[in-house]
Amino acid sequence: MNNLKFEDLPKAMExxxxxxxxxxxxxxxxxxxxxxxxxxxxxxxxxxxxxxKINITTLWNWTKKGKLNSxxxxxxxxYKRSEIENTLIKINKI
Length: 94
What we know:
Layout: H1 9-33, E1 42-44, H2 45-52, H3 56-65, E2 71-73, E3 76-80, H4 81-93
Antiparallel strand pairs: 1-3, 2-3
């Protein structure tokens, strides 16, 4: 379609409209099925200790023993709220 003649214009427009319609349908499908990923809430050591009503030392011991996972970002340590809640659920089932 690089060298279009006047006679080819109706056929070219028809092709463009078909492709545009296809793109619109695909965008509509994406919008209907799109579920944004929830952002993970990170908690500091102090927030976790307060949340669990434990001492920072206990939190450190639990982390060292592998009961809780910690994540280092820069020189700071964070915990994922969802992982803490899942750990509590596991403990309560025991």
